[in-house]
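haha ok so turns out i had the wrong file open the whole time. this is the CORRECT one, sorry everyone. sequence first:
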Amino acid sequence: MSRPSTTPSPVPSSGPAGGRRSAWRVHQGREILALAAPTVLTMLSQTLMWTVDTALLGRVSSLALAAAGLGGMLTWASYSLFNNLSRITGTFVSQAWGKGDEDHVGHYTWQGVWIALVSGTVLMVFGWFSYLVLPWTHNPQDVQDLTYVYIKYRSLSAVFTQLTMVLMGFFQGRRDVKVPMYAGIIGNVLNLVLDVWLIFGWSGFALFGRTWLAVPAMGVQGAAIGTSVGTFVNAVFLAAWALAPRLRAKYALHLVRRPDPRAIANMVRVGLPAAWEGFLDMSGFLMFTIFVGTAGAVQLAASQITIQVLSFSFMPLWGLTTAAAVLTGNWIGAGDPDQAAHYGRQTYKLGTYYSLALAAVLVLARHHVFKVFTNDPEVLVLGSALVVAAAIFQYFDGIRMLSSGILQGAGDTRYTMLVTLIVMWGGFIPLTWWLIVQRDGDVVVAWMGASACYLLQGIFMWRRFRSGAWRKIEIFE
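then structure:
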């Protein structure tokens, strides 16, 4: 795909003005979807690793399901301290690619690698010592014990998770979105095989008088190991492709670039607020999970399934968000923020159409969704109401995601961080505590409260996009 130009060729040069505008909108929509579709599959494949864990562990016990849910939330809450810092590589790559500066593409990718190596090591150490903070969750001791097992083995792949973020930024920032998709598919196929093998165990097969590949049922530990191995393979595939001869000639990623303090400072200046935004959002949901967990393993398991339902629902929105961030960065790099704004508006429209359609599907299928994940009758009782709550929540969360992606593509990360701080820690967390702990509310009430808070957050971010203040942001200094 060619770089953006200030006079895009697909705009018709003849015909009524309304027809030209309509044709250009259709072109923009197709371009957004062409980037979004493979990205959806990429992110869906990453989410599937956790979802497969959830679905299979739901067949083991509600305790195992609750532990994996809490462990997954704790893991991603800690990862979110660094995920967007590693992922900010995509913003720098997209703007450098829009300018046609291939040296900057390679240089900033390598600086992202250095950030990923450091941050991933910190996260791995945290995972192995997470037993020190688990008592703060006030969950039952058996849940805490299994949660630590899950976190410990999931964190083995922390470095490779961060490297994946950087390398996805390298590919997606250049509109090369299919390679991350292929890597994700390979990692997930391996994760599925390992999950079935390790969670439930296998007696193996006899050959040459010996038994091969026999393993005991490992439950939660097996799920975490399978996910870590899948993540490792995903990162290795991306790295191998980035070092292919065709890309070497342009970006010279095979030549190690030393850490550049000035470039890293630029990435930290833009990426740290984005990282804090991600952390504030994830830690808010972590507190939400902890408060729900105080109501018992059944309520926690039901909430975990709701999160898994949402993880599938917002993947297409995440694909649109990533596409919008890339296109925003490309056009700003090309010196045309007006085109970036046009693409942003088209992304909002596509996101709205999708969210409304999905809400209708979820409401119609509300009696059947939870049965995919569990056969526990106590959890299934909560299913229908929680699916309706998820249908409402995903629309408001979608507006927030799309706004955040567009603004991040422009490098406008500080505003979104401040909004997230105020709404999540000033509204969402206190509201959840009041509803669950003080009022003895159930998980359905808690999710409706979450919807109200995410609506407020989405409104603030949408207004920032409308203001155009993001046009003045300069990321290269």
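The radius of gyration is 22 Å.
again sry for the mixup
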